[in-house]
Specification:
Blueprint lengths: L3 E8 L4 H15 L3 E8 L2 H13 L8 E6 L8 H16 L8 E4 L15 E6 L12 H4 L2 H19 L3 E4 L2 H11 L3 E3 L6 H4 L8 E7 L9 H9 L5 E6 L6 H14 L3 E5 L3 H10 E5 L9 H8 L3 E5 L13 E2 L2 H12 L3 H14 L5 H16 L1
Parallel strand pairs: 1-2, 1-4, 2-3, 4-5, 5-6, 6-7, 8-9, 8-11, 9-10, 11-12, 12-13
Helix pairs in contact: 1-2, 1-14, 8-9, 8-12
């Protein structure tokens, strides 16, 4: 009889965490586990989009035993706190049927830390965003209101208990792992998230169009306004294209970006809910990819840009700076504008030489590498 693996995932949206979930499921199925998936989700649209991600990853959904737990959110409370509360309720409901579980994986432990329990001989928890589980530095922490401090403290204590009981913490970058260690006293193994490198590697090195691409959910948390500021500070003033999924209720933010671009003289196109094929086409055409969020924990869109040979410009502080050369990083939007000018001025020979070297770096994030690394970890734990 096959061993049983239980995977729990809180899907508050669709992004890099859901790809980690998909390829975790694939790795477990390739290892021969009978996989049970407990999915916490509030939005039917999220569930439908997740089904497509699982299919793209080659997961055999018919062999999954999936249980959907509906969650509801109130505007008055911080989202992170509500996610921890929902994960607590999930654990209470799940507690009576954990017998016979050989492997347990929480694929979004930062937002569902309380669903992280060492209930199996082999237990793993994947942390995407260290800022959701580590305290703000020094005295600033005491100045925050309790409703913001409480979720961090709850999550941190849950992960510490998990680690003390022998659970293995995984981090999506050295940046994330270092913050977990520095502020939480937690040791985490770095396992870069899976990227569909092959899908983006079809892009030719040349020709390219002189526009800047910015990819991410259209939400204030992604700090997309920094893309507008950076292009505004550039001398070349290339067109800016922002592409991503529009979060519910975020129409006001899209309108804000549009007005901001108009006031700064930036030519802006916002493409919402872009299908994957169209996104690949944009990467293939753009000369520059600009990542706006400082302190990004990994940045899958940056790895996709590398694979597509679209030269990335990223903040110096954060996970992307681990795999992007220092001369393509920036400390502020003025610096970003100068880097954009340098890249848009490259001729075909200069561009293809640099983009080709960067593309080779993307192989480190291939989804097959993630699957094999996870399978190897599971095998070492069982021996």
């Amino acid at each position: 009889m096959a061993d049983t693996a239980l995977v729990v995932h809180l899907a508050s949206g669709v992004g890099g965490a859901e790809r980690v979930l998909a390829y975790t499921l694939r790795a477990l199925q390739e290892e021969g586990y009978q996989v049970e998936l407990d999915l916490l989700a509030a939005d039917e649209d999220v569930v439908e989009r997740l089904e497509g991600i699982l299919a793209d990853a080659g997961v055999d959904s018919s062999a999954l035993e999936t249980v959907l737990y509906r969650v509801r959110y109130a505007r008055a409370l911080p989202l992170t706190l509500q996610n921890h509360l929902w994960s607590t309720l999930y654990r209470l409901r799940r507690a009576w049927r954990t017998r016979g579980i050989d492997v347990f994986v929480n694929t979004k432990a930062d937002e569902a830390a309380l669903a992280t329990a060492k209930i199996a001989p082999r237990s793993l928890a994947y942390v995407h965003d260290p800022f959701l589980v580590t305290p703000v530095q020094c005295c600033r922490e005491r100045l925050l209101p309790l409703r913001r401090r409480l979720p961090r403290r709850i999550a941190l204590q849950a992960l510490r208990r998990f680690a003390r009981k022998g659970g293995v913490l995984l981090a999506n970058s050295r940046f994330t792992a270092s913050l977990l260690g520095r502020h939480g006293g937690l040791r985490a193994r770095v396992m870069y998230p899976p990227v569909d490198v092959d899908r983006f590697s079809v892009c030719p090195l040349w020709p390219r169009e002189n526009f800047v691409l910015c990819v991410g959910r259209i939400s204030p948390t992604k700090e997309l306004e920094n893309c507008i500021h950076a292009v505004a500070y550039s001398q070349s003033k290339p067109e800016l294209v922002i592409a991503g999924f529009l979060d519910k209720g975020m129409e006001w933010y899209m309108e804000l970006l549009t007005r901001m671009a108009e006031s700064k003289g930036v030519q802006l196109r916002i493409l919402k809910n872009v299908p994957r094929t169209k996104l690949v086409d944009l990467y293939c055409r753009a000369k520059v990819y600009l990542h706006p969020k400082r302190g990004e924990h990994f940045g899958i869109a940056v790895a996709e840009a590398l694979a597509a040979a679209t030269i990335p410009v990223v903040p110096a502080y954060g996970g992307p700076s681990e795999f992007v050369p220092q001369n393509l990083t920036y400390n502020n939007v003025r610096e970003a504008g100068r880097v954009i000018d340098r890249l848009t001025g490259l001729d075909s020979e200069e561009y293809t030489s640099l983009a080709g070297r960067l593309r080779r770096r993307s192989r480190a994030f291939h989804w097959r590498r993630f699957v094999e690394e996870l399978r190897s970890l599971l095998g070492s734990q069982s021996s």
